Amino acid sequence: MEGIQVRCDKLQGGVIQRSRLRVWFIRVCSSIVLWTCLVQLVTVSELWHSHFFLGISSRIYHTNQSPLEAQNELAQPPPPFLPARNYTSNGFLRVSCNGGLNQMRAAICDMVTVARLLNLTLVVPELDKKSFWADPSNFEDIFDVRHFIDSLQDEVRIVKRVPKRFSRKSGYSTLKMPPVSWSNEKYYLEQILPLFGKHKVVHFNKTDARLANNGLPLDLQKLRCRVNFQALKFTPQLENLGQKLIRILRENGPFLALHLRYEMDMLAFSGCTHGCSIEEAEELKQMRYAFPSWREKEIVSEERRSQGLCPLTPEESALILQALGFDRETPIYIAAGEIYGGEHRLAQLRAAFPRIVKKETLLVNDELQQFQNHSSQMAALDFMVSVASNTFVPTYYGNMAKLVEGHRRYSGFKKSILLDRKKLVELFDMHQNGTLPWNEFSNAVRQVHEKRMGQPTHRRVDVDKPKEEDYFYANPYECLCEGTKCDDLLGPLNSSQIR
């Protein structure tokens, strides 16, 4: 009996052991299946992210647009995301943009185009944090980075960071350099592309005006436009607040956006002190000398003003708007930062046009608080309002004025009055010394600007002086002729009435 019991115990132990092995085997197989499913789900979700979910969010965005906004979107429908382009990358292009928002925006468009030309992988651009404004914003704080990557995937591969194997921790040293300004495709193909064969990663530490205005193939010019007008969307937070500003302004009828470039940094940089006190002029001079990159030989403000190199003062701006026929009931949105001299310097302009507003007066503090101390994000709000305005008037032809002008041309050649400051200074001085009566002054101002309204025109080309050519992003006419003969669109009969 005892032997039988021992055999039974052994048999029972074997059964238990086999049962444990079976349970262990089932758990292992289940784990493998679960991990396989998880990997498949992650892969599918990545594919759906750009095509399905973004498609839904895009449709929701368009559903919430106003009729006028929807009409504008119908005029320029965004293209659907196309399949990713399959190519062998020649290396990674890192870029550090320099300057303000619109200077960086144009540079980003250029760098995408360079990456496409050289079959590179572009790393999401780094934005300037060391300029006068010291804005800590990253790319994703201003632009919709997912849309930027996905909307260009059929042209160029864009990643958020360089792979770890090319990092400094891995002992890799990246080549840093600024490309030559206003360069054409030959320069990039013959001098820049070979560098990637040796270094694999090249870091452009300056990116403004590194691509020529003219002489580039049509497909590259159109890609610059595609990045500018379609891929570079502001973040939803900025878009929503910008659209709110536009809705508020439109409730009171047509409005004018005045880019009053009379901020302290502009005056210090340019050396323009017309209308300032002796103390203010000295303050601006000291500020200019505090920045090594702004220093130059002694600037004579009145000489620079007579050459048309100074922004208009608020007082001069008031006279010009009156001469152009805008009445005192015209709503005017001041697209600018803090005006030098504050409300004191705005007094004459406000007396002539009492319906002056700014983003700070149209929105409550809580709405703007998240964008305070972020100059590029605040500039993005002014940019959106300026593009949407019925009339746009910049008092200085800087980067924002040029980029807004280009967007308004792209939106149907909306009126942008581009002031001839050199001629205006002559007219101002004659009017103020009594030699040019108001009626003659007003007629002269109108005549000077009859063909400076942002109407269709060719870009001015000067092969020997590319800096003096018309800027591509102010007038990208290669992108404005779909379905129309460019010769007809850009013909000589393109003047427009002021009002």
Automatic annotation (TrEMBL):
Keyword Transmembrane helix: yes
Keyword Transmembrane part of the UniProt annotation: yes
Cell compartments where the protein resides: Membrane
TM regions (residue ranges): 21-42
Subcellular location, principal: membrane
PANTHER family: OS02G0726500 PROTEIN-RELATED (PTHR31741), RHAMNOGALACTURONAN I RHAMNOSYLTRANSFERASE 1 (PTHR31741:SF51)
GO process terms (BP): fucose metabolic process
Organism in which the protein naturally occurs: Glycine soja
Organism ancestry: Eukaryota, Viridiplantae, Streptophyta, Embryophyta, Tracheophyta
Name of this protein: O-fucosyltransferase family protein
One of the record's GO molecular function terms: calcium ion binding
GO CC terms: chloroplast; membrane
Membrane topology: Single-pass type II membrane protein
Family affiliation: Belongs to the glycosyltransferase GT106 family.
Alphabetized UniProt keyword annotations: Carbohydrate metabolism, Fucose metabolism, Glycoprotein, Glycosyltransferase, Membrane, Signal-anchor, Transferase, Transmembrane, Transmembrane helix
Ranges of residues in domain EF-hand: 416-451
Annotated pathway: Glycan metabolism
Signal peptide (residue range): none
